[in-house]
Fold this sequence. Notes:
Layout lengths: L13 H8 L4 E3 H7 L2 E6 L6 E6 L2 E6 L3 E4 L6 E7 L7 E6 L8 E4 L7 E4 L10 E4 L7 E5 L1 E5 L7 E4 L5 E6 L7 E5 L2 E5 L7 E2 L7 E6 L4 E6 L3 E6 L6 E2 L8 E7 L7 E7 L4 E7 L7 E2 L11
Antiparallel strand pairs: 1-5, 2-3, 3-4, 4-5, 6-7, 7-8, 8-9, 10-11, 11-12, 12-13, 14-15, 15-16, 16-17, 18-19, 19-20, 20-21, 22-23, 23-24, 24-25
Amino acid sequence: MNSKLIALPVVLGTAALAAAGALAQETTVVELAGRTHFHGIALDRADPERLLLATHHGLYEVRIDGAARRISRTADDLMGFAPHPGERDRFFSSGHPATGGNLGFLESRDGGRSWTRLADGVGGPVDFHQMAVSMADPNVITGVYRIVQRSVDGGRTWHAVGPPPDGLIALAASAKDREVLYAATRQGVLRSADGGRSWTTTGAPHGTATAIHVTGDGTIYAFLAGTGMMRAAEPGADWRPAAIGLGGELVIHLVIDPADANRMAAVTYDPATRMQAVAVSDDGGLTWTTLGRDPPSGHQH
Length: 301
């Protein structure tokens, strides 16, 4: 597998940065896909027509009709973006300020409009590209910056855990056990039962896993390049194909509504065009609408 198909660039050249500075606050998701990179996605649990998209140039509100509007007060690069599992307007992130450097660990309590640095992290300010918030205990947050780091007080203090698994792409936390993590890696799907200190295989098919997500009932979803979406019940011993089809595109971020498992959103990546897109489904992944490309009611991909 060509690593360039998975590892999207996170640093823009001077010309691209100049163009990014002109990104309008009112735009479309298709235009955004051509001018920035998507680093995370969340569903608005109270508004089925609204998504939140963390990008290289701030946090955007995206509507089902494809319209997009920047809602963060800054155009900072938001990486490791994750919603709080129980509070609608609370989010966590990391990344880079628009002026350069690292942001440390950030929290927003107003839906992503403003952000507060809670901590620098270990060896920071950190730039967590992978981060997971435990559903079993939301005070337990894991991030990766050079090493696996862990907080047990909601991100205010951090301690070193150990080296990350080789080829790490994404992290997800268990819905049932605060010590359990899942990792999407170039070697497949791995599991840690000790907060990230050690990792074992899960029995998922071999191959590069580009996305991983755990639902509130303990269902693990993993997208594997060349295989497609797979799912298993925690702890992940019996993997089966999930009825989620997105053509030849890779899923690089997946989110599922904790109140309705049929409602999903994904950031996809087309290896042929090297373009990202945002797709939504309201029937458990059987059919999809690609925002800005398909009619909102079409649910075709």
